[in-house]
Amino acid sequence: MKFIKILIIALLSLSLAAQEGSDYSICEDQAISFYQDVLAKDESNILGKQFELTTLKLARMTISHSRPSLEDAISKLSKSIDKDDPKLKHVQQMYKQYGYEKDLDSLMQAMESASYWNKDTRFYNDDVSAFILLAKETNPEAGLDERDAAITWFMSYVGDKASDKFGATSATRNLTNLSSRLSRFTGAYKENRSLTDSEIKSKIDELESDISVTMKALHRELVIELGAECFNGALFGGACAYTDDLSNLLYSQALMDLSDDLKKNRVQGLEEEVFQSANKYQLKLMALPSSSEYLREKPLSLIPPKIDYSSVADIRIHDEYWINREDITKLEDNLNLLSDKEKIKAFEQHAQSGVFFILNKEDQTLEKYDANGDLLSSQKMDLEGLLSDEKQLGGAGNYFIHSIKNGVLYLQDDRGNVRPYHGVDVSNVAPGASFYILPQDRDHHFKIKGGKLHFTTKGRKSDYLPYNFSKRDTSIKEIRSVITNKDYQTKTAVQFMGEIDSRKSEITKLYNLTDHEYNELSKLAFGILGNESGFGESSRYHVKEALPWLVAIAKGNGTNTSMNSRGPTQIKKVPPKIAKKYGVTKENLTDPKKAAVATMGFLAQALDELKAKERFHPDINADNRFDYIHYIYMGKSREITKATATPMKNIYFKQILNFNKGLEVYEKIE
Do residues 602 and 575 touch, judged by C-beta distance below 8 A? Predict the structure, then answer.
C-alpha cells in the first residue's frame, strides 16, 4: 500500500489549502524546509516522542475496547465502519485517484481479518498509517490526526531499513513496528496486565505536554527564520496568527517529504534503540515498559458470596435437605425488583458474607456497609475520566478487594483478573471484601440468579469483552422432580422425570448447559410429555405406536415409517450426541428413559437454535426465551424469525404451563 504516502500528502495539501485567507505561494516551501531541517537534526527527539505518542493513542483506543492487540481492536472497529459514510467520501476519492479502485475495499477486508498472532495478517506501520486516516474520520474520540499518520508512515521506512539490515523477524524490526510496541501496553502477553485508562492517559498527557513545549519553541524559531514578509497577511493570515492545526500540517508535510529522502539513504545503525542514517537522522525510540513493570498480580483464592437458602428448605429426602425451586425463584424475583444498590445490600444480607463496598460513579461516592447492610461510612471520590462502564474506563460490576499497594487499590474480578483502580481511597480493609461498582448504562444491571449476584445486560449486546459482565455459572445442583398431580403420576412420567433428574450432570456437560437452563428445559420436557402422549397413557399415542404404517399413509409417505415421530414426546430425529452416548434409536424411544434423554437433547439443540435466531424477534430476551423454545420443537421456527410468535396466545404452550402446575422441582441444599 505504498500509495498511502501519496494519499497522506494529498490530504495534507487539501488541509493546508483550506486554511482561510491564506496564500502559501510565498512561504509554504520555506516553512516546510524549516521543519525538514529541524527533523533531520531532531535535537529534541521529537520523532521518537511523536511515534510513542501515536502508539499510546492507539493503545488507549485498544484498551478501551478490552482488546489485547491493535489488530483485535481494528478488526472489531472495522465491522462498524460504513464505507458509504459521507465523511469518508474524500478518503475514498483519494484511494481511487492515487491507488487502485478497490484499495479501500482491500484495506477493509484486511482490517476485518487482522490478527497480531499471525504474521501474514499482522499490521505493520504502513497498514496502521492507512487505518489512522480512516479512524480520524470514523473514530474521532481516539484523537488521531495527520501527524499520527505521517509519523507512522515515516516509521514504515525505518522498519523497512531495520528489516533489510537485521531481518524481517528480528527484535530490532519489532522495535520499530507500532503494533508490536503497542502490545506491551495492552496485556497481550499472559505475564503482563493491561494498563488502565488513567495510567495510559497520564503517559499521553506527559508526552503531549513535552511535544507542545517543543512545537512552541519551534514556532518562535520559525518566526525569526521566515522574517516579517511572511506574516503580513499571507502565510498565517495575520501577524503571528499561528495555530496548532497549522503547525501539525506543516510538520506532517515536512515529515512526509523526508520519508522519500530516508528511502534513498543507507542505514548506518539501529543499536540500543537509536536509529541513524547517513549522519542526517538520529531517532531514539522511547523505552518500552520493562517486563516486570506491569506484571499480572496473582489472584486470591476467593469463594463468591451466595444466598443461604437453608432457612427456607421445606422438604427432607433421605436425610438430606431440599428446597422447592419455586421458592428460590420467588425469593430471587422479589429481590430483583429492587434498585441495583438495594439489591446488592439485600443480597449481602442473605449471603451473610461480611463488610462490603458500593461505589456510585454518578455521584462519585464510596459507601462502606456491614454484613447487615447498615452504612458504616461514606466518602467522596475523584473519578474524572472513570465514569463509563467498560472495564478499563470505569468498570461497573462486582469485584473483590485484592490488595492496596503504594496507596492504590487493586480489584479482582470473578475471572481472577487483577487491576489497579485509581482515584479510590480505601484503607484498613482485609483482602476478599466484596466491592461493587454501579453501572451508568441503563441496559446494565445486577441480577440475582442461582443464589449468586451477576452483573449483566438487560438488552442484547454483541460485544461482551469491554465489560466486566459476570462469567457463566458452571455449578450444577442436584434436583428431584416430584409429580404432585395424581393424574400425571403414570409409570411413564415417573420414569421419564427420574431419568431427567439422574442424567443432569451428564447432559449439561454434553450440551454445555447452565444449571438454570437444564431446569427450565426439564419443565418443558414434562409439559411436552403431557401434550404429546398424556404422559404415555393416551389412546391416540398407543395407536400411533401400534400402527406406524397408518400414520405414514396419513402423512402421504406411503408405508415408509422412517419419517414418523416416535416415543411419548414424539421425537422425529434422535439428537446425534444422545444416540452416541445413550444408544437411543427411534425404535427404542418407547422406553421412557430413552425418551427422556432424547427429549432433553432435542430441547438443548432447540435452545441453541433459538439463541441464534432470537435477534429477529424483538420480544425475546434472556428472561423469557424458554417461552419460545416449543416453537422450534414443533417445527415452527419461522415464527421466531418472522417475529410472529406469541407464546401466551399459543394453545400448545398454555397446555405446557398447565401441566407444569402438577410438577415441583426440588434442589439439594449443600
Answer: yes
